[in-house]
Specification:
The protein has about 170 residues and is of the alpha+beta class. The protein has a domain at about 55-160. Helix content is about 35%, strand content about 20%. It has helices spanning about 10-25, 30-35, 35-50, 75-80, 90-105, 155-160; strands at about 55-60, 70-75, 85, 115-120, 125-135, 135-145. Strands 1-2-3-6-5-4 form a 6-stranded mixed sheet. A hairpin with a 2-residue loop joins β4 (about 115-120) and β5 (about 125-135). The longest helix is centred in the middle third of the chain and has 16 residues, at about 90-105. The two termini are about 20 Å apart.
């Protein structure tokens, strides 16, 4: 993909651009910068102890096809299931809601696999996963379809792109 990254919603594109510019200008609004690294690591540990998992929202990740990297930690260790990733530009709370849903399904005995279709996760849409890497870890990338229920369109097709995502 060349040129400017495209997003599903212009307002999100503006929000994403603002966050990236702030980070570059060292006026970052990320959790680590707001809380300080020590408090942030303590918060992560508390999340893992309380729920067994946590999610990171990275909005300027050059190692993902669309520049965003929502991903989970702790699911493999605490629920014996592969962690998840979403690379489509969404509001962080929407990505987190998807992750909540997936973890609840896992707690109820469901297992998700790459290459299978799941029709009961998102109302009216089929959900698919592909195997991917996130900082060298194996993850299941949740593929989000367009409003027509397909993966047509540059942004939706880009979810299938694998980049060398190593630390």
């Amino acid at each position: 993909m060349t040129g400017k990254r495209k997003t599903a919603r212009p307002e999100f594109d503006k929000e994403l651009t603002k966050l990236i510019e702030a980070h570059k200008a060292e006026h970052c609004d990320c959790a680590i910068c707001r809380m300080g690294e020590e408090k942030y690591r303590q918060w992560e540990q508390e999340c893992l102890e309380k729920t067994g998992w946590l999610a990171h929202s990275v909005v300027d990740d050059v190692k993902t096809p669309l520049g965003v990297n929502f991903h989970t930690h702790g699911i493999k260790e605490n629920f014996n299931h592969t962690d998840f990733q979403i690379v489509l530009p969404l509001r962080p709370e929407i990505a987190h809601s998807f992750f909540n849903l997936l973890v609840e399904e896992i707690k109820n005995g469901k297992t998700f696999e790459a290459g299978k279709e799941y029709d009961n996760l998102t109302i009216g849409y089929i959900t698919r996963f592909i195997n991917a890497k996130e900082c060298g870890r194996d993850v299941l990338r949740m593929l989000i379809c367009n409003p027509e229920g397909t993966y047509e369109g540059e942004m939706y097709e880009a979810q299938f792109t694998m980049l060398d995502n190593k630390e």
